[in-house]
Amino acid sequence: MILKAIFSFFLGTLLILAFEPFNFWIFSLIIPFLILITLEKQNPKVSFILGYFFGLGFWLIGIFWIENSINVYGGANVFAASFLTIVLSMFLSLFQGLIFFTYSFLRNDNFLTRLFLFPSVWVLSEWLREFLFSGFPWLYVGYTSIDNFFISGFIPVAGIFGMSFIIVLLSSLALEFTKSVKKLSSSSIILCSSLVLLICLSNIFLIRVDWTTSTNEIDIVVIQPNIGIKEKWTSSGKRESTDIMGGFLIKESPRLINKAETPKLFFFPEVFLPGQFSNFGFYLKPFLTLTEKANIGVIAGTLSKNEENDEIYNSLISFGNLKGQYRKERLVPFGEYVPYSFFNYFFNFFNFSRPEVSAAVNNELIMGNGYSIFASICYEVSFQDLFFKYAPQSNLLFSASNDAWFGETIGPHQHLQIARFRAAENRKPLIRSTTSGISAVINERGGIIDLIEIDDEVSKRNNPQELSLKINLFKGTTPVNSYGKMPIIILLLTILMVSSYLKLRKIRENK
After folding, report:
1. CA terminus-to-terminus distance, the chain
2. Can you name the residues that pair with 221 across neighbouring β-strands?
3. Which of 29, 63, 88, 241 has the greatest count of CB atoms below 10 A from its CB?
4. For the segment 389-426, what is each residue's pLDDT rounded down to a tens digit?
5. CA dihedral 383, 388, 389, 390 (to 10 degrees)
């Protein structure tokens, strides 16, 4: 039992290698296969323990970058930060324990159940994690499919939960095929082989489909200011931010003389202007006329205030040839708001300051002449529902972030992988601007056109960097845009109910 728990823990740590920055996506197929072998003939109680240790290995390695944020910027010492990260990992591990327990409890000798039950409970646990206890939609195994050329064509059709299902289903098929070979069961061998072949052949067709169509071309500039978080909120940091913006915009003044017709858009990261936008109005006023006449659009992160109730929002404002504002809808638990009043005691105990940002609802696209931009902020890129809501009407996606909280850990790389998946899922290009990396321009299929790496000198100097290039806008929708995630969730719940019925019937027959 102890050896199996250690092995499960080891498998959990290995699964992280399937994600960025490692990107050994083949592990996302191998690890579930090995898990299924480990769970053979285990009772539900033992399976839960194995699942819990698997989750513990997975989460401890996968999200330990949170410790950097709590320690460096949250005011906690390294021991408190590590303790809090371990506690979160222990909590999240319960989801893996639930997967393994449910699978072991409901499995039976029915062929379809053997194939589809484990993928179903795996994905349903990811779905629960999306909204339960404020939600943590991170490290879904489906994200590893972005570079998996065997199945990546399904992304705009199946979405993130569908891709997770396909990956774990392939592992189930591999196990069933192995058993069938040992038993010399030709019918099972043919069926498993046929299903794998069907998935691969369908992928060849789907990967060639252009779900969206290219429209006009625009010039874009992505700014990565590389200003440290602590410095950013000082008076010198605020001056540095405004000087960076002014410097990049003044460089474009020759466009006034040349009367450039091609629009040019500048993208600045989350809370690039540190403070309420109204405090920067005087400084920005000279640039409003310049940007409009030079056919320049600007989107920049800042804070905005609702004058009616004094609520503060994490926002993206636009000016020049762009009109509109986006206020963040999905906030980071504990980072931007306290989800439950109980945790006020937690903040008191560790002497942390309470976040004071409010969540917005019913945003609109940021619009310009010939383009419409769905802009999201940081953590929101992991919520596909937001993209289902706004992306179909857009022709360009933008994600502003501040991954400086996580330093040179694997966190920013995982964040970029999620952004790439959103682009592929919606088949529209996505611009990613971050405070200190990784900033990127991503094409409509999730491929990276160009990027700026993490600035490892951000705490020592200010070194703003930029990406300047041309991209095409895309219009249209993908199948998953049209029907959302509910069809796959209903399918998975149906499989779970059928498996429960078959298990109940078997129990009655054995009485």
Report:
1. 30
2. 266, 468
3. 241
4. 999 999 999 999 998 888 889 999 999 999 999 999 99
5. 100
